[in-house]
């Protein structure tokens, strides 16, 4: 996927919402749900069984968003690097190796201190859902070894994993409600769903 195709797909589906994971729930509150990765809202895995559970929940959610059960599919992935200038900086080495990417765009996140601006540089890739490298990227996110990874397939939904869970922007409010009903034990007890 080229940068221009990505820009067109993103703007058609998500309008002016920046492709930054923590902003999604503000732009799409009626389609947003947050799932926690481990029972009891435990944030980080402490053993391999817990990593297996994190990946299981992620795969279940992604398959439900994709609407299929068995066939592998290609996901579009957005990943990020950060710097103090508009010039793109490389992503972290593990991510660079696991998820080869092309530069997409840079966004000024914060210029409240003009001498220390904060830029995010976005990169686009494709990755098969059932690829061990995709699992490794999801594990990096779960360990907080990388941040801001967005996954989608056809710009109708977004999956934004983070260390401790994932934010989902479903196609519709009804689909969001179905996901919530199917996975009530993955939801937060926090009144705002955080």
Walkthrough of the structure:
This protein is α+β, with helices and mostly antiparallel strands and 194 residues long. It has one domain. Helices cover 32% and strands 25% of the residues. It has 6 helices and 7 strands; from the N terminus they run H-H-E-H-E-H-E-E-H-E-E-E-H. It has helices at 3-14, 24-27, 48-66, 93-98, 132-142, 173-182, and strands at residues 32-36, 74-83, 102-110, 118-128, 150-152, 158-162, 165-169. The strands form 2 sheets. It has a 4-stranded antiparallel sheet with strand order 3-4-2-5, covered by helices on one side. Helix 3 (48-66) packs across helix 5 (132-142). The longest helix is centred in the N-terminal third of the chain and has 19 residues, at 48-66. It is globular. The model has no long low-confidence stretch (mean pLDDT 91).
């Amino acid at each position: 996927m080229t940068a221009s195709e990505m820009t067109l797909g993103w703007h058609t589906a998500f309008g002016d919402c920046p492709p930054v994971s923590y902003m999604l729930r503000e732009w799409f509150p009626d389609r947003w749900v947050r799932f926690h990765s481990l029972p009891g809202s435990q944030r980080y895995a402490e053993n391999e069984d817990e990593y297996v559970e994190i990946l299981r929940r992620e795969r279940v959610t992604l398959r439900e968003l994709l609407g299929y059960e068995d066939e592998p599919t290609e996901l579009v992935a957005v990943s990020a690097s950060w710097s103090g200038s508009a010039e793109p900086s490389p992503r972290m080495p593990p991510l660079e190796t696991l998820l080869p990417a092309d530069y997409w765009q840079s966004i000024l996140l914060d210029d409240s201190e003009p001498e220390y601006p904060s830029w995010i540089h976005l990169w686009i890739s494709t990755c098969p859902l059932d690829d061990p490298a995709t699992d490794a990227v999801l594990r990096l996110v779960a360990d907080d070894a990388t941040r801001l990874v967005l996954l989608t397939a056809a710009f109708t939904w977004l999956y934004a994993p983070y260390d401790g869970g994932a934010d989902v922007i479903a196609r519709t409010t009804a689909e969001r409600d179905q996901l919530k009903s199917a996975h009530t034990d993955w939801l937060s007890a926090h009144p705002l769903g955080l």
